[in-house]
Specification:
Belongs to the TmcAL family. It is an enzyme of class 6 (ligase). It comes from Acetobacterium tundrae. It catalyses: cytidine(34) in elongator tRNA(Met) + acetate + ATP = N(4)-acetylcytidine(34) in elongator tRNA(Met) + AMP + diphosphate. It is found in: Cytoplasm. The structure is a single chain. This protein is an alpha/beta fold and 419 residues long. It has 20 helices and eight strands. It has helices spanning 15-28, 52-61, 72-75, 79-93, 108-120, 123-134, 139-151, 153-158, 162-176, 204-216, 221-228, 236-246, 251-264, 281-291, 295-302, 309-321, 325-332, 347-359, 368-371, 377-397, and strands at 3-8, 32-38, 66-70, 98-103, 182-187, 340-345, 364-365, 412-413. Strands 1, 2, 3, 4, 5, 6, 7 and 8 form an eight-stranded mixed β-sheet that branches. Helix 18 links the parallel strand 6 and strand 7. Helix 4 packs across helix 9 and helix 10 (204-216) runs antiparallel to helix 11 (221-228). Mean pLDDT is 93; it is low at 193-197.
């Protein structure tokens, strides 16, 4: 059995994701697909629109055989941490043959060449990067300037596009770990990552906006169904009805109130221990929390030329998780190895799990009550934050309250038939 690996958000799973899986299987001749999926919080720092089991169900219905959770210590972090965490887990399974990821151009060689250069980090690159950072721009912008100066516009343009950025981080991690996994890339279909434009291949952002409008604006359900009918690899009802039943439309308000309680109840310097807080940003955050009336208003009060929106959202999510820099450094250390948290599988996925069990020492978690005891102290700490993220997603963005669902929910099991 040749296994294709994918590291994804599926927020929610859409037609572009299904195309990537089908096209990747054709090109790689893999006959099974395993996905590492962000759990409750995404790489941009947002809470996912559906909980992780609902998103797992959709992924299993449309081509994925095994869905496992990418721990929040990787999932809600920088592109580098997101990618390296995913690669670390796939390497540790010892069964993944090919890693597939999307990119804007769909060509592997240019991404490979840039990834190798960034891994090597020649002294001249460090020097130009430092100079760019001293001019007061963000790290991504400074890196782009340095690459443009040293390798030219064609290379630096690759760093302007979100799928390419993640692709390069995947490749960097594969090289750094001397991985046996073969990389492959397929071109992103349809709209750009953040695009809200209408298309057969709507972006996840566009789909989320349509869904939220349908839930909050009278008479917009029919419009939403029409807009989404061509962009999902399963009936719209399979996505919309669970959302309509369980999505709490005032989740952002709950999130903001939790942040107020946490941040204003403690000394401002407590914020300095939150990942991605630097340069006196703790004062700006605390002042903004005092006056912001909405979550969007809070975020907009903090962003700046050097502090992009995604960094702010990650700060706020890590803060509400009470995940500090020291703990995050421990959980992201090269020497630390996590676990494989199973969210769902079909019969082929079950065969993948058996293969992992036979070849790897990676702890496989299907029933937390039974399997938590097999974890070491740092692995249990990592699991604590995954469970906390689940609880917060439930508390903020779901109607049906379910405390510690991670300990009561079994993996989704599905037969080989799709919708």
């Amino acid at each position: 059995m040749k296994i294709l690996g994918v590291i994804a958000e599926y927020n929610p799973f859409h037609k572009g994701h299904a195309w990537q899986i089908n096209e990747s299987q054709k090109r790689s001749q893999c006959d099974a697909v395993m996905a590492l999926m962000s759990g409750s919080i995404t790489q941009r720092g947002d809470f996912a629109i559906l909980n992780k089991w609902e998103r797992t169900q959709l992924a299993l219905s449309a081509g994925v055989d095994l869905v496992c959770e990418l721990p929040v210590a990787y999932a809600c972090q920088s592109a580098e941490a997101f990618a390296s965490g995913g690669i670390k887990i796939l390497n540790a399974t010892r069964v993944c043959d090919v890693l597939s990821f999307g990119s804007e151009g769909g060509a592997l060689d240019p991404l490979n060449n840039l990834a190798k250069f960034l891994v090597a980090e020649p002294p001249v690159f460090k020097s130009v990067l430092k100079e760019a950072l001293s001019a007061g721009v963000s790290f991504p912008k400074a890196r782009m300037i340095a690459i443009d100066h040293l390798l030219g516009n064609e290379a630096s343009t690759l760093l302007r596009m979100p799928n390419n950025i993640l692709a390069i981080e995947y490749l960097k991690s594969l090289y750094k770990t001397h991985s046996s996994i073969s990389p492959m890339t397929v071109p992103r279909q349809g709209c750009g990552y953040h695009s809200l434009a209408a298309s057969e291949y709507l972006s996840a952002s566009g789909i989320r906006n349509i869904l939220k409008d349908a839930l909050t604006k009278t008479g917009s359900e029919k419009t939403a169904f029409n807009a989404l009918s061509r962009s999902l690899p399963y009936p719209v009802e399979k996505l919309f009805f669970p959302l309509k039943q369980n999505y709490h439309r005032h989740g952002d308000e709950r999130f903001l109130n939790a942040l107020r309680l946490q941040i204003l109840a403690q000394d401002v310097y407590h914020l300095k221990s939150t990942p991605y807080v630097s340069e006196g940003l703790e004062h700006k955050i605390r002042d903004a929390v005092k006056t912001a009336e909405t979550l969007d208003e809070l975020v907009n009060a903090i962003i700046s030329k050097r502090i992009p929106k995604t960094r702010v959202l990650r700060i706020l999510s890590n803060r509400v998780l009470e995940l500090n820099k020291q703990t995050l450094d421990t959980l992201q250390a090269d020497a630390f190895f996590p676990y494989l948290r199973v969210l769902g599988f079909n019969k082929t996925g079950q065969a993948i799990l058996k293969k992992i069990k036979d070849r790897s020492d990676l702890p496989i978690l299907t029933n937390l009550k039974k399997s938590e005891s097999c974890l070491n102290a740092d692995q249990r700490k990592m699991l604590t934050y995954d469970c906390r993220a689940t609880d917060l997603h439930n508390l903020f963005y779901e109607n049906n309250y379910c405390y510690h669902r991670d300990y009561t929910q079994s993996p989704i099991r599905r037969n080989e038939c799709h919708f």
